[in-house]
Amino acid sequence: METAKDLASIIILTHNNAPFTRQCLTSLRQYTDQPYEVIVVDNGSTDGFAQFLQSLSHPNMTVIVNRDNRGYAVACNQGLRVARGKILVLLNNDVILTPGWLHNLRACLASNSKIGMAGPLTNHITGSQCYPVKYQQIGVMQSFARRFNQSTPARWWPVKRLTGFCLALKREVINSVGYFDEGYALGNYEDDDLCMQVQRAGFTLMLAGDTFVHHYGSKTIQSLNTGMISAATTANRRRFMAKWGFDPLLNTLSGSREFRPPSGTIVTTPGGIYYIDFWMRRLLAPEHLTWLGRLREGVLRLSNPQLAALVDGPPLDPDCVSTGQAPSCLLVKDEQGTCHFLQRGFRRPIHQDCWLKLKLTCQRPVPVRAADLQGYPEGEPVLPSVLQGGWLPDRLVLRVHNHLLISEESTLRAIPMGLVHKCGLNHQAVMEANKTILDLYPIGPPVTLNNPPSAPASLIPPTGRTGAAAPMWHQPTPPTESNR
């Protein structure tokens, strides 16, 4: 018999959309090889599927049926209150799970007592958990995920925000911070609120970059009245702002309101020289600047408090590639002359002509051995057509509508010319881009020494969650009642 110590409690919220729920439950049974219980909380569905689940009398399934739609926060709390597991997983019913998903998330959570929550990558979401893919069939997706989901700490990243489509957390986190704030109506921003509470309690949020699941995206929200959702989203945004003192759109787009230099920036502080690796600061010895192909002139000088929001990562040295700890935003060349752009634990092939055409970076390629790159899964190649959609390489500098923008994690951040060179970027290698690129990639908070920052008024979206309306790549055909 499973004990609470071994058990994972998987809480699935539903509101109609029975075909998606069927797919979700099927993938759960097929790809979860660790002890678990399922808690389905139905928010006033009219398709009869919740009653069907109740009739199954499965020993590891609990079904809670609400007569009306009580919203995401209330329904999650209902599931959390009856959950028995040590690990708690909040799961949207339009998610398809993949081989090793739970094992990888649990390994990430168990790696450090300070890690409170972990979330995977997916194809359709706002923020840093979005990973561009081009599959068009679920079978192809599962083959991709089987290769992708190789558990490794080298692809775990501290972040400031995780979303609730697939969110794993420890029991002690809920014991420490309590449940979701039920003042958030229907859906949106209650998961941002929980992230803030968890970090205030001293826990770290981790992006499990070694785990990919499929997410159709916002199927429950899309099934509701548009006016009702718009009003609830606006009210939730205001509630977050009143509670935390900043606009949650900054949280949605970048993971935090706090100042952070772009990934790949070298900063010098009274405490030493650091390489900015997303939300990590990695100590860098002065003699290794030459190894990175950087000049001392392209170094940003900051005070220690300006880096307070960043997490200490492993030191950066010439052995980091061979040990599986290569930083993001590193251009490398092996002994055969093949170039790769290392980004978030992946190696992205890039031809030298493309690298020069995109004016990707002012650093020279770092020499590595081809054998040392085998531990990094191959990601989407960097092609000149990348500006038309797909996974943007980090550190592209673009000029759009009289604004300078830098690409980072598939968002675009405004950056003043005075900071371009200081962030190690080539101020003479700015690419002209059409304003239509703003329809493909959301605008994040600008690169500025001010804290908290605000984006240019001509670029920031008015309300709602940017980038969630449609993915930038292909989606499989959603399930229907006829192909359950």
Descriptive overview:
With about 475 residues, the chain is of the alpha/beta class. Among the domains are: about 10-245, Spore Coat Polysaccharide Biosynthesis Protein SpsA, Chain A (Alpha-Beta Complex); about 260-320, no CATH class. About 25% of the residues lie in helices and about 25% in strands. It is built from 13 helices and 23 strands. Strands 1, 2, 3, 4, 5, 6, 7, 8 and 9 form a nine-stranded mixed sheet that branches. Strands 13-10-11-12-14 form a five-stranded mixed sheet, with no helix packed on it. A hairpin with a 2-residue loop joins strand 16 and strand 17 (about 345-350). It is globular and about 65 Å long. The model is unreliable at about 450-475 and about 480-484 (pLDDT under 50).
Question: In brief, what are we looking at here?
Answer:
The chain has 484 residues and is of the alpha/beta class. 24% of the residues lie in helices and 23% in strands. A hairpin with a 2-residue loop joins β11 (272-277) and β12 (280-283).
Topology:
Elements: E1 8-14, H1 18-31, E2 36-43, H2 49-56, E3 61-66, H3 72-82, E4 87-92, E5 95-96, H4 101-110, E6 115-122, H5 138-148, E7 156-159, E8 166-170, H6 171-177, H7 190-200, E9 204-215, H8 219-222, H9 226-244, H10 248-254, E10 266-269, E11 272-277, E12 280-283, H11 288-291, E13 300-301, E14 311-312, E15 330-333, E16 339-343, E17 346-349, H12 352-357, E18 366-367, E19 397-400, E20 403-408, E21 411-414, H13 417-420, E22 431-432, E23 443-444
Parallel strand pairs: 1-2, 1-4, 2-3, 6-9, 10-13, 12-14, 15-18, 19-22, 21-23
Antiparallel strand pairs: 4-8, 5-9, 6-8, 7-9, 10-11, 11-12, 15-16, 16-17, 19-20, 20-21
